[in-house]
Amino acid sequence: MLQNVRIVLVETSHPGNVGAVARAMKNMALERLCLVSPQRYPDAEATARASGADDLLARAEVFERLDAALAGCRLVIGTSARERSVSWPVLSPRESSQTLIAEAKVGPVALVFGRESSGLSNEELDRCNYLVHIPTNSAYSSLNLAAAVQVLAYETRLAWLAAQGTEPVAPRDVASAEQMEGFHQHLAQALLDIGFADPRQSEKLLRRLRSLFHRARPDVDELNILRGILSAAQGRKSMRR
Ligand code: SAH
């Protein structure tokens, strides 16, 4: 089950943080470290900070783009050092870890961490079903990257320990991150084609629609129905015809 939990670091600048994250993960028995365009990797400083977790570091998977790191994921949770103004549903660390563990029983899930300097962009948050915020001092809310991973990895371990020996309640099938992304691209194009909205001018509208579908978490059949409707509205041959 823990094999299904990916810890994704986006464009980390300090290799020491990458090493410290590997160590934090191994302590909590998490294994899959995914690096999206790290600024320096591999690096001796990362290996030194990983201490005995250099095996996990050596097995880290490196991707150029976030979408590639999220391939096949049924649930994506982003992290935020700030309380965001836009309408992403925010979970507490405890809620997010329980959700991750419940879903990791049936498929890959990801916890995504941002850059040391600027966190995650809105476009990256658009890939997330939920956000998790560690309730820090609001006057000084930003944790060191590896410290944030440590807190959430610990919560994930608590949720995993609590789930041992309980009957698994299988969550239903849902579309993967890339299927959802394909749908969102199609939706934006269809809104343009039917003259409802120009995606370049309606960022807020598209973000609200993303949030709606992230909450609904459609399965593949439902996504196909929605895409069929979009195609029909676009005047293309509907998939059902
Ligand atoms: N200056 C950035 C902070 C980045 S901290 C900003 O304001 O967004 C680096 C990363 O650590 C964040 O992207 C997030 O992944 C994690 N992090 C730091 N503090 C956190 C907190 N309180 N809750 C959740 N994640 C946090």
Strand content: 5-15%
- What is the CATH top level name of the largest domain? Alpha Beta
Enumerate the spans where pLDDT stays under 50 for 5 or more consecutive residues.
none
Give Rg in angstroms. Answer: 19 Å
Label the structural class. Answer: alpha/beta
Report how far the terminal alpha carbons are from each other. 41 Å
Number of domains: 2
Small molecules bound: S-adenosyl-L-homocysteine
Largest sheet entry = 7 strands, parallel
Helix content: 40-55%
CATH homologous superfamily identity of the largest domain = SPOUT methyltransferase, trefoil knot domain
Please report the total strand number as a whole number.
Answer: 7
The succession of helices and strands, N to C, reads EHEHHEHEEHEHEHHHH
What overall geometry do the principal axes of the alpha carbons give? Answer: globular
CATH topology of the largest domain: Alpha/beta knot
CATH architecture of the largest domain: 3-Layer(aba) Sandwich
Mean pLDDT: 93
Number of helices: 10
What report would you give on this structure?
This protein has 2 domains: 162 residues, Alpha/beta knot (3-Layer(aba) Sandwich); 57 residues, Orthogonal Bundle (Helicase, Ruva Protein, domain 3), CATH 1.10.8. It has 241 residues and is an alpha/beta fold. It has a 7-stranded parallel β-sheet with strand order 3-2-1-6-4-7-5. It starts with a strand and ends in an 8-residue tail after the last helix. The protein is globular. Helix 1 links the parallel strand 1 and strand 2. It has 10 helices and 7 strands. The mean pLDDT is 93. The structure holds S-adenosyl-L-homocysteine. S-adenosyl-L-homocysteine binds next to helix 7. The site of S-adenosyl-L-homocysteine has 18 residues, from helix 7.
